[in-house]
Model the fold of this input.
Amino acid sequence: MPCFRILALFLSVGWAFSALLAAEDSLPPAQIKVDGAVIDVTFAPGKIDLPQERILAWITTAAEAVTEYFGRFPLPHPRILVHPAEGRSGIFHGTTYGSDGGFTRISVGQHTSQKELDTDWMMTHELTHMAFPDIAGDGREHHWIEEGMATYIEPIARCQIGNLKVEQVWGEMAKYMPQGLPEAGDQGLDNTHTWGRTYWGGALYWLMADIQIRQRTRNQKGLQDAMRAIVAAGGTIVHEWPIEKVLKVGDRSTGTTVLADLYNRMKASPVETDLDDLWRKLGIQVKNGVVTFNDDAPLAEIRKAITALRKPAG
Done:
């Protein structure tokens, strides 16, 4: 047999053997059913110390949080690809796309502990992205409204299913929200693409919108109503919407113009927010890392409504 044929045969057998080993190292695909949606979960080659059912339970909890906040799971048949990361622990590198009916990629370290799954925020953050349209634009201009939405809603959604304590929600907002305040040279959220303004500046927009909607409706409606209306109208990640449509649909559901008004104020100008005063009005007190609440504060009832726990069935 000519040498090149022997070499080709050797390489072919080697590739087939490598593929077989990779397949043996991969966890089998699975499906999760949540609120009528079917989520396909596949695993890239690699090992995870925890049993597969623990990983699926972690994803299910995140999907349930998103379902609770938005009133339904936003997409009928999305996909999640889990990448095991050899020798590492924790959850990282989450990204969500609108292609193929909705697709999330996320990495899970081989040595990830059950505690790390139980306290993770990233899976919920990524699935929250599925419940918001891809905003038309240059790719950067409105990125803050997408990332800010997921940053703001993720802890509230987890709180509403009892997966996160209300003290943690407000304590982390008080700790991290200052990163979203404008700095020298800021040109508004549409034009300032720093990490802080994108994630926490965007989250601040949604927090202020939530509060203002509740103020104008005497706490009868909030941002959650607007977000549910956007999803019900087809505003999910698989569709591209102009930002004006998002704001219009959301505002129409609350009978206000809060989303559009706040956007027009913040899109091209640095809007200062006195966060210390805001926390005081909401009745949020943080001392030595311990969060307590003043239920006599002017906006205490609004604070309670935003993070209200899900009512038990029956």
In short: The CA atoms of residues 53 and 149 lie 30 Å apart.
